[in-house]
Amino acid sequence: MPYDDTNDPDLITLSEAVLQAFTPEMYNHMISLLPTPEIYAATHGQFANGYPAYLKGDPDGIKAFEEARNAIKQFLTMLSGLSKTAAIKDPTVPERLPLSQTHTKATGSNSSLTAARDFKAYYDRKGNIYATFPKIPGSKGYQIWLCEGDPNVEGNWRLLTSSTNSRKVLLPTLNRTNNNWLKVRGMRGTEAGPWSNLVAIAPA
Fold first, then answer.
1. In this predicted structure, what is the pLDDT of residue 170?
2. pLDDT in tens, 37-74
3. Where are any strands of DSSP class E within 36-168?
4. 146 three-class SS
5. Which stretches of the chain drop beneath a pLDDT of 50?
């Protein structure tokens, strides 16, 4: 424990200072900062259920999802620290909250996203347009963007569709009277990977 090597006089002095500060009000305040099971469940629901809207690029959905994600990260960090503290009295507490295993798994896959290679788009016999590209390691989803003007002007690009797979992604109908340009990137949370090669769709 942190204070095993503290001599008794210093430990008494430290404990006296804590005694003055550790009032019932301070205790209640500290407890109020921790998430209750009900608050955690509600926040998790907002986080998990908001992921599809985040992938679609909906502005309101993105904001709500990011707020829920930040809250979940705070809660997990607090519960992780609390479980380690409780282990001083009960060593089984960390085993009952799978926080250490989850953290280890997450950090092991924290390498940077790479760009999609061989991004292609094609029409089938019915006139449906599809996009396809190899899976990006570490990516949790993909965003395909469309440009109907000069592809060198960033403001001409907009989100066309999002997908959790990389093969035969059905795209919305394009305006074939214009030149269309497509590009794709991998997504992992708020992390966006680099853009792929551009694919040009000539007017029909």
1. 93
2. 999 999 999 999 988 877 776 677 788 888 999 999 99
3. 120-123, 129-132, 141-147, 157-163
4. strand
5. 103-108
H-type helices in 34-184, by residue range? 37-49, 51-56, 59-86, 93-96, 99-108
Contact (CB, 8 A) for 124 and 112? no
CA distances from 32 to 15, 27, 50, 169 (A): 23, 9, 26, 47
User: In whole angstroms, what is the distance from residue 2 CA to residue 96 CA?
Assistant: 24
120-201: CATH number: 2.60.40.10
Residue 34 has which token pair? 């921790």
| Residue 52, amino acid | P
Instruction: Tell me the CA distances in angstroms from 81 to 34, 40, 78, one per residue in order.
Output: 11, 16, 5
The helix (H) or strand (E) run that includes residue 44 is helix 37-49
Please, which residues bridge with residue 123 across strands?
Answer: 129
Q: In the beta sheet, which residues pair with residue 148?
A: none
Please report, rounded to a whole number, the percentage of residues in the chain having pLDDT higher than 70.
Answer: 93
The residue extents of the domains of the chain are 34-108, 120-201
Q: What pTM, to 2 d.p., does this model score? A: 0.52
